[in-house]
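Record 1 of the preview.
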Amino acid sequence: MAPTRVVRKSLVLGVLLMAPFMAQVDATIANVATPSIHAELGASGAVLELVISGYLVAFAVLLITGARLGQTHGYRRLFLAGIGTFSLASLLCGLAPDADALVGARVLQGAGAALMFPQTLTGIQLNFSGGARKRAIGLYAIALSSGAVIGQILGGALISADLAGTQWRAIFLINVPIGIAGILAGLRYLPTDAHRLCRRVDLAGVAILSVSVLLVVLPLSVGRSEGWPVWTWACLAASLPALALFIAAQRRLADRGGAPLVDVRALSTRPILCGLATLLAATGTYYALLFTLAQYLQRGLGDSPLVSGLALVPWVAAFGVAGQIVRRLPSQLVRRAPAAGCLLLTAAYTAISATLFAGCHEELLLIVLLAIGGLGLGIQFSALIAHLTNAVHADHAAEISGVSTTATQIGGAIGVAAIGTLYLSQSQAGAAHATHAFAVTALALAAVAMLATAIAHQATRLDRRERQGRSRRHTPLLDSLPAGAAH
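->
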C-alpha cells in the first residue's frame, strides 16, 4: 500500500472515530453537571434525570434507523447530518434559558448522536478489510471506552474551571467548535457515498421499533430514581410483544419483496444472535461499573468526581491495549478471543469482590484489577465486533452496525438499572457499608460476565459446527469419485 493511501485511510478513520467518541463523552459528561444545573436553573430531581436519560433514550431509540438511513442515503451524508445536528443541539444546550429547553435540546442531541454514531462501523466495514479492519475496530473500541471516562473527567474539569462564568454550559458549548471541525474534515476526507441502496425507508418499521426500544430504555433509565412505579413494569412487559410484532412485520415485508428496516433473516443465525447477546451482557457490566464505582468512590469513600474518573483511566488504557492485541492474533485465536476476554473480565470482578470481602481496601490493587477487567472487556469487544462485521455481507453493514450498537445501549440501561439498584439497596452511610455494597455488586458483575463467557463460547462453537457440517456434506462426493480422481 502506498504511503499516500495509508495516510488517506488514516484520515478517514480519524474522522469516523469522532462520532463514537463525541457520542460517548456526552453520554456521561452531564452526570457531573447536575448539581450546577440545579443551582442555576432550579431543576427538580426528575428534570435532572431527564437531562441524562433524554439523551440516552433518543440515542438508543433511533440508532437502527440512523444506520438504515446511512445505507439508503449514504453513510457520509448521514455522518455529516448527524454531527451537524449534534453540534446545533449542543449549542442549544449551552444557551438553554430554562430546564425544559435543556431537556428538549438534550433529546435533539441524542437524535444527532444516533444519526452519526452507526456510520462509523458502517464506514469501517465498507472502507477497510483484513488487518486494516482489525486495527480500525481496535481504535473504535478505544474511542468508545475512552469517551465514556473522559466525559466524566472533562465535565468535572470544565465546571471547576468555570470558563468565562459559563459553569455547566461549557460542557456543551465545547462540542460546537469540535463539531464544525468534524464537518469540515468529513467533507474533505470521507469518500463519496458509492455504496448506497436506492430504496424507501420502512417508516412503519421505524415507528414499531422506536416504540419497542422506548418501552425498554425509558423505564430502565428513570425507573430507579422514580421508585419503580407501575407504569415502568407495564412498559417493560409491553416491550416483548412490541418486539415480536416488529420482527413479524419485518419478515412479512421481506417475504413480499419489500425493503425492511432490519433484515432479520440475515441476522438470525445463531452465531450472530449469540454474539449480540454476549455484547449486551458484557458491555452492560461496564456501564453498571461506571455508575456503581462512582457511587462507591464519591459517596462511600468521599473522593472527588475527578479522582473517581481518573480511577478508570487504567481500565480504558487496558481496553485500548486489548484492541491492539486482538488485531495481531491469527484468525483461529480471534475466534476464541470473545470467550477468553469474558473469562478474564469475570476473574477481575471476582477478585475485586474477594479482596473487599477480605477487608483489603488497597486502592492500588483495585486499580490493577480494574486494568485487568478493562483488558478482558477490550479483548471481548474487539474480537466480537470483528466477528459480527465479518459474519455478514457489506449489504448488511447497516443492520449489524445499528443492531450491535443498540444492543450495547440496552445492555447498559439494564446493567445500570439492575446492578445500580442492587448497590444502592446494600449501601448505607459509612465507608464500611459502601465497601460491603460494592463487594456484593462486583460479585453480581462477575456472575453476569460468566454468563457472557458461556454465550460467547457457544457462538464460536457454533461456527466450528457449521464448518464441520460443510466438510461432511462434501465427503460423499469425494467418496464417490474413482480412486485417484480426488487428487
